[in-house]
Specification:
The chain contains twelve helices and nine strands. The chain is an alpha/beta fold. The chain has two domains: 7-208, 2-enoyl-CoA Hydratase, Chain A, domain 1; 212-259, Lyase 2-enoyl-coa Hydratase, Chain  A, domain 2 (Orthogonal Bundle), CATH 1.10.12. The strands form two sheets. The chain has a six-stranded mixed beta sheet with strand order 1-2-3-4-6-9, sandwiched between helices. Strands 5-7-8 form a three-stranded mixed beta sheet. Helix 1 (32-47) packs parallel to helix 4 (96-103). The protein is globular, with a radius of gyration of 19 Å.
Length: 268
Amino acid sequence: MAEAPFLLIERDGPVVMATLNRPETRNAISETAYSEEIADFCAEMTRDRTVRAIVLTGAGKSFCAGGNVKHMHDKSGMFAGEPFALRNSYRTGIQLIPTALYELEVPVICAVNGAAVGAGLDLACMCDVRIASESAVFAESFVKLGLVPGDGGAWLLPRIIGMARASLLTLTGDTIDAAKALEYGLVAEVVPHDQVLARAMEVARSIAANPGHATRMAKRLLREGQDMKLAPLLEISAAYQALAHFTEDHDEAVEAFIEKRAPQFSDK
């Protein structure tokens, strides 16, 4: 019998919920096929202009445990092969995920329902907003296994919490709780465990209430602005703004504002 998809996809109007669906392994990303599935999902979401927000979460008690340590021990699956083959396996496997999520135009809210460890923490960092359960824990734990962040964590984490705290987490590999993650700015909010998914969906619906073209281009500006000087960012902003002015949803938003009514967007 074929293995069930790694991502369980559900849709509620313009909001899509994607659930990492391997609770028996704490949603470890243990196969190249899982990375390919995530990359394909991201491409599909960008193509579908009716999708305005995505919620990413994990099934069971964990968000994502990162790599499968048993496979590391056995040097099997995505950890098999000599150094050259293993390097290529990373580049054509798990490294598909940061590229795909970085290029994904739809805003992504991460509902961290439990442990986000190693590549699991990095996966959460690839999202735009992180809402954590009060029982969630976080660790950039690669060094504990004699490894380094192999999926972009050394680029992602300092941009979210700053170099000093990113260095502390990366070099110690220590675990922090949700309260500390909030203090660090790693997550936007901490909520009771039974409310984490509902709160993430609430944020997603708030984003999805806006025209999709605006939130997609605004997300792109935020991403590009991390590595760009002000002048070229202003140039891109002007181009995006010109495009936005000529959308039907912009006209509808302005008319609804003037008429003091709720807008009805058509993703055009």
